[in-house]
Design goal:
It is a single chain. This protein is mostly beta strands and about 300 residues long. Strand 10 and strand 11 form a beta hairpin. The chain is globular, with a radius of gyration of 21 Å. It contains one helix and 15 strands; from the N terminus they run E-E-E-E-E-E-E-E-E-E-E-H-E-E-E-E. The protein starts with 10 loop residues before the first strand and ends in a 10-residue tail after the last strand. It has two domains: about 190 residues, no CATH class; about 35 residues, no CATH class.
Length: about 300
């Protein structure tokens, strides 16, 4: 019998990616930790994006300092450092609309071009947070959800990271789901005509190709196993205490999760999501070394009081 208390420490949103199967989003105080060195500050999973004038671009904010754990600026790091970034490239992909657009592929921007963003790690050299502002291309112009005349609808911000962690090279792909449903006008707020989508479009790889090309860590190195990184980039072994970070989030309702103190080589994980009509709870026992995870889920459905009108 495993006893646990209700205080919650780490929020992990379990959500179905478009084709890739089950995705885990580890969200701590609004920060989305990826299975790599990058931390996404914005947007949050499932955010509806688009907008007129004020939000005329897809805005992405990425912390490349490991939440302050990596040496900064990067020029102070030796090329032989056991932990460092090589590159970040970003794409906007959809298995619903079958589109794959380049946001940043690591190339310099041609003079006068607004089709894509330059090398992510070179943006804002004095800042540990990189702000990507990608001007929407022409085929995403419109309002509301997808239609036969546009490519609007459900997308993933696909974050590709090449990096070294504790002396081992990794290439990871992390998909953050969003929906392109807010209004996007035909011309940008600066009056420029939007780039043709053909200029930034790439072949869409199938799920198997993406999985085979990725060599991810089992989770964020800044979170996994109650870990921390020293200046030399060494991951500490799992501790016996719990993680004491608060977080809340939502995906079509209110959700919360706890990763509880570990005992031996196992961890207990509890996930709960509450919508207006149901409460879903999943309890998992996860092996930290070897073994088969055990998971049990249940959903409680309820009827709101008659005097309460749902909008």
């Amino acid at each position: 019998m495993i006893a646990f208390s209700m205080p919650l420490f780490i929020l992990v949103v379990h959500a179905a990616a478009q084709v890739m199967g089950s995705n885990n989003f580890t969200i701590v105080n609004g920060l989305v930790f990826t299975p790599g060195l990058a931390i996404v500050d914005a947007p949050q999973p499932y955010t509806p994006v688009g907008g007129v004038c004020i939000v005329d671009t897809l805005q992405i904010a990425i912390d490349v300092s490991g939440d302050g754990k990596l040496p900064w600026p990067p020029s102070t790091q030796s090329p032989t450092s056991p932990t460092l970034f090589h590159s970040i490239t970003i794409f906007l992909t959809s298995y619903t609309t079958l589109r794959n657009f380049t946001i940043s592929n690591g190339s310099d921007i041609p003079a006068g071009s607004m089709a894509f963003v330059g090398p992510v790690l070179s943006l804002e050299p004095s800042s540990t947070v990189k702000h990507i502002n990608w001007v929407w291309p022409a085929c995403l112009v419109g309002s509301g959800s997808d239609s036969s005349s546009s490519s609007r609808g459900a997308y993933n911000i696909s974050l590709h990271q090449s990096f070294r962690w504790n002396g081992t090279e990794y290439y990871t792909i992390f998909d953050l789901p969003i929906s392109v449903t807010n209004s996007i006008p035909a011309t940008s707020s600066s009056g420029q005509v939007r780039a043709d989508c053909a200029l930034v479009e790439n072949p869409l790889l199938d799920a198997a190709q993406i999985i085979n090309s990725s060599d991810p860590l089992p989770g964020s190195p800044w979170i996994i196993g109650n870990s921390s990184s020293s200046t030399g980039g060494t991951l500490t072994s799992p501790g016996s205490g719990g993680v004491s970070i608060d977080g809340t989030g939502s995906t079509g309702g209110r959700g919360s999760l706890t990763t509880l103190p570990k005992s031996g080589s196992w961890a207990l994980r509890v996930v709960s999501f509450m919508t207006r009509l149901s409460l879903h709870v999943t309890v998992s026992i996860v092996p930290l070394t070897r073994g088969t995870p055990y998971s049990k889920s249940t959903t409680l459905r309820f009827t709101p009081p008659l005097h309460h009108k749902l909008k």
